[in-house]
Design brief:
The protein is mainly α. The chain is 67% helix and 0% strand. This is Exocyst complex component 3 like 1.
């Protein structure tokens, strides 16, 4: 299109018309700046008079410049107007094109609506075509479909007859026919195939039943076991176009193998009742190795290598036995015999060469990583239960034995004696034998049970007196000194028995010592003769007691006599009237000490352990001529007997009868002088066990006991 034609088609703007442009906000400011610049230029040019002659030149030059600028502006405006004309023409052309496209789209929409209506009218025809194709496919498969019910019944007959391989082949043919029928029918399932699901489940159950009786079938009908395993393995590689869940007969077969094995040996009806645990464990000791041998010889050849039959058998038997034992422990508490049997069987027999430790059990069994039958908590619980029950029975038996021993020793006739003439009872030997036997038996189980039993034996042994046979219960591995607590308890018990025995002696001696000291005592040894006579007669019964118990009795008897003697001296029954009576009292103390010492030496008590020398120390205190030296004598008494108190010294000074208040204070002050002396080696308290009467007011002083 040339410019002339284009000018004809383009819209023409009226002459003289213009498109007013937008007003500039800076227009007024620009004009002011231009005017200012022009005035500045003019004032510069025409500032001097000689420049005015050239005004015409400047005017013509500016006219030319103005004309040039106007021409350029007109050219720009004309170009802009031509671009606007072209844009308006293009917009008109685009509007015409849009209108044409709109009309074309409306026509296409109508055509599509007409086609949808036509397609709806063809839908019944399409359905008839699909039905025709399905009928055509059914007509071709109709002879085979008519045979499906008979094939299903025949397959069920094969399953019932345990012809598993043939039944599986027939089932797969039916399933393939179902797949061939389902594809042309668009996934439609025919009622004739409804029996395939129960039929497959029946075959799966037959495979499970055969696997569950693997041990029995391996002996009597291995072909059936092989058929069941082959069916499970072949079906594991089956693929189908139908949307069916996998049957997973291989896993069902393995689970059936395990469940059948556990049912044979650990069924609910086979679990032991009360008192039958030992018989049950003995039966397992024979049955489990035989079961493993049968699995290796008969079942393994019937199964693929990846079944690992021997390992499966060993682990299944172990896990089943472990669960069975856990259930047994969660039930009623076992008796001590069953507890011991279970511990010994689980820790030694089961792991021994007769069972899981057998050399005939090959590496394919892989028993090295089996968990223990009993956990550490189970073992601790069983050991604690066993020891507690044994301890209860031992304690009950000991109590009955002790009661019988009391009755035996309480008879009017003398107790039995041994060949040496000592009183004798077989009870300690019997007790030690029973405890030692219990300890010896527990060595068969574990060191921890033996230690528990050893502790129980020591605890129960604390009820009996020390015997030289106690060392029987102390094996070589026990740390020396472990019997010290028991020996300490036995020592306490021995001393208590001694006190009980000597209470009878004390009851006889107390009336005699009630008259001591007295004037009669000063002049006659008759009172102490009676004491020695009764003491000697009482101690004659000790001849039937063995050492060291007889020595303990004699020591306590001598100590009892001396304490009674000291207690009588402290009661203030006698006050010497002069030096003669003090001399008599000192001589009486010396005589009595010698008489008592001779008495107990004759009874067999060594002089080194006697308490009689305390009377000789008191004799020196009474025999002192100069009362001013009493402080030295009291200090010496304190060195020998650190437990002597001010009250004891005061009572002895009262017995002298010649001590003034100042002398008493001086003597008593020596008790407080210097540090408290340490008791001599082997010293036993005497004065601290001797009571004293309350001191009189006249004898009190600020630091005394009544201050």
């Amino acid at each position: 299109m040339d410019s002339a034609a284009r000018d004809k088609t383009q819209p023409v703007l009226p002459t003289g018309s213009s498109c007013p442009g937008p007003e500039w906000p800076e227009q007024e400011k620009a004009e002011q700046l231009a005017r200012g610049a022009a005035l500045k230029w003019a004032s510069g040019i025409f500032y001097r008079p000689e420049q005015l002659a050239r005004l015409g030149q400047y005017r013509s030059r500016e006219v030319q410049r103005t004309c040039s600028l106007e021409a350029r502006i007109k050219s720009v405006v004309q170009s802009y107007l031509e671009g606007v004309k072209t844009g308006v023409w293009q917009l008109a052309q685009a509007l015409e094109a849009v209108r044409g496209a709109h009309e074309a789209l409306g026509q296409a929409h109508g055509l599509l609506r007409d086609m949808a209506e036509a397609a709806q009218t063809l839908e019944p025809l399409r359905e008839q075509v699909v039905q025709h194709k399905q009928l055509q496919a059914l007509s071709q498969l109709l002879p085979r479909l008519r045979a499906v019910p008979a094939a299903v019944a025949h397959t069920q007959t094969l399953i019932d007859a345990q012809r598993l391989l043939e039944a599986y082949v027939s089932l797969r043919e039916l399933e393939q026919l179902q797949e061939e029928t389902c594809a042309p029918l668009g996934g439609l399932e025919l009622p004739v195939f409804e029996g395939l699901g129960p039929l497959a489940e029946a075959l799966g159950q037959a495979v499970e039943a055969a696997a569950g009786a693997a041990g029995q079938l391996a002996r009597k009908d291995p072909a059936l076991l092989v058929a069941a395993v082959r069916v499970a393995e072949v079906d594991a590689g089956r693929s189908t176009s139908l949307e069916q869940a996998p049957r997973d007969w291989r896993q069902r077969c393995l689970r059936a193998l395990q469940q059948g094995l556990e049912r044979v040996h650990f069924g609910t009806s086979l679990q032991p009742g009360p008192g039958a645990l030992a018989k049950w464990l003995e039966a397992l000791r024979v049955a489990l190795p035989a079961e493993l041998a049968m699995a290796e010889a008969l079942v393994a050849p019937c199964c693929p290598p990846h079944y690992k039959v021997v390992q499966l058998w060993a682990h299944t038997l172990h896990d089943g036995l472990r669960r069975c034992l856990q259930q047994l422990l969660e039930g009623p508490e076992l008796e001590e015999a069953d507890t011991f049997t279970l511990l010994h069987w689980a820790l030694h027999v089961y792991q021994g060469p007769e069972m899981m430790g057998s050399l005939e059990l090959g590496p394919e069994a892989d028993v090295s990583d089996l968990e223990p039958l009993l956990t550490l908590e189970n073992i601790e619980q069983l050991e604690a239960t066993f020891v507690a029950k044994v301890q209860a029975k031992v304690a009950q038996w000991l109590q009955k034995a002790l009661d019988g021993e009391v009755v035996e020793w309480g008879r009017e006739q003398e107790p039995d004696t041994d060949l040496s003439g000592f009183y004798h009872s077989p009870l300690p030997a019997i007790v030690l034998q029973i405890l030692e036997e219990n300890i010896r038996v527990t060595r068969m189980v574990s060191v921890s049970l033996q230690q528990r039993m050893h502790g129980m034996a020591l605890s129960e042994l604390s009820t009996f007196l020390r015997s030289s046979s106690v060392s029987v219960l102390q094996p070589e591995w026990v740390v020396p000194g472990v019997l010290a607590p028991v020996e300490a308890e036995l020592d306490k018990l021995q001393k208590r028995i001694c006190r009980l025995v000597l209470e009878a002696l004390l009851a006889e001696l107390q009336p005699l010592f009630a008259a001591l000291p007295s004037r009669r005592w000063l002049s006659s040894p008759e009172l102490l003769d009676d004491v020695c006579e009764r003491t000697a007669r009482f101690c004659q019964n000790f001849r039937h007691v063995r050492n060291p118990a007889v020595q303990l009795l004699l020591v306590e008897a001598e100590r009892t006599v001396v304490l009674q003697y000291l207690s009588a001296l402290m009661q203030g029954r006698l006050v010497c009237r002069g030096a003669d009576e003090r001399t008599q009292a000192a001589e009486r103390l010396q005589h009595d000490a010698a008489q008592l010492q001779e008495l107990f030496l004759g009874l067999g008590l060594e002089e080194s352990v006697q308490c009689v020398p305390v009377l000789l120390a008191l004799k020196e205190l009474l025999n002192l001529r100069d009362p001013t030296l009493l402080g030295l004598e009291v200090a010496g008494l304190r060195q020998q007997f650190p437990d002597v108190s001010e009250d004891h010294v005061s009572a002895l000074l009262d017995l002298r009868g010649d001590v003034s208040r100042e002398q008493r204070l001086a003597a008593l002050s020596s008790l407080r002088a210097g540090p408290q002396p340490s008791p001599p080696a082997g010293h036993r308290a005497l004065f601290s066990l001797v009571p004293t009467p309350a001191p009189s007011v006249a004898s009190c002083f600020p630091s005394g006991s009544c201050a």
